[in-house]
Amino acid sequence: MATVATPAPDKTVEQEAVRRPRKPPWWKGKILPTYVALVLIYLVVPIFVMILYSFNVSHARLPQVSFKWQGFTLQWYKEWNGIPGLVPAFKLTLILASLAAITSAIIGTLLALALVRHRFRGKGATEQVMFLNIAAPEIVVGAALLSFFVILSTNVAILHSALHPGFFDLFLAHVAFCIAFVAITVRARLAGFDRSLEEAAGDLGANAWVTFQKVTLPIIWPGVLAGALMAFALSIDDFVISNFVAGNVETFPLWVYGAVRVGIPPQVFVLGTVIFVVGFGIALANLFTGQRKKKQQKA
Q1: What CATH code is carried by the domain that includes residue 206?
Q2: Considering its fold, how many domains does the chain have in total?
Q3: Which of 17, 112, 174, 223 could pair with 187 in a Cys bridge, judged by C-beta atoms 3.0 to 4.6 Å apart?
Q4: CA–CA separation, 95 vs 116, rounded Å?
Q5: Residue 157 belongs to what domain range?
């Protein structure tokens, strides 16, 4: 019986039948980069304005920032400590922020370890309090801390001399609102932690402290450092809470707020530029260190 040959399908017809996805318009690929560029400009332009006008000449009787460009000068960098009260307030703020960052990093890291690795009564309440501490307005936290310190110093005689508006109150207040930020940052680092590394260290004879020092801490160290730097930035920048509990002690933000009424001296922009340059340098160093470690791991 003869077989009838079926004609081969036309490839051109099949190709036409398959619809190729249409290329999106060219402007759609520009939306996200444009949006990111605008956000970065919005964030960076005020900083560049501060840096620029820290080099501006001022012909006023008192040294004040003039936003009319009058010429380039390094005078304010040479006279960075020429304003009474500014440098002591700046030094006090650096000391306060450093102590608050170190203390918050220690307590926040231990809190994160407890929340991730242990079950205990009140764990849920602790997590809620931690998030409430971040979400609460600073004016509410400041008023609450002031009331708390006043009640303690009034009713507890031994705390009367310690808990009065001043540096110690500032330190306790800054640690109180920085702990939650450190704990959340370290907790995110612990989420992907491989516990088998600690078990291997224990099998090799390491005790709990040696395991933490040699294995756990190096792995979570980027999170601890990030939390400490965040606490430092929050402390050095805080105004509202410090305004409630500082008393006669004057931090850098409080000093600047008081100077605004008369006129901001250019030295404020000088110190702000120094803070920005140091922070930018630390960020770059951290970035280069991370890239170097990745290259070493790939090699």
Answers
A1: 1.10.3720.10
A2: 1
A3: 112
A4: 31
A5: 84-264
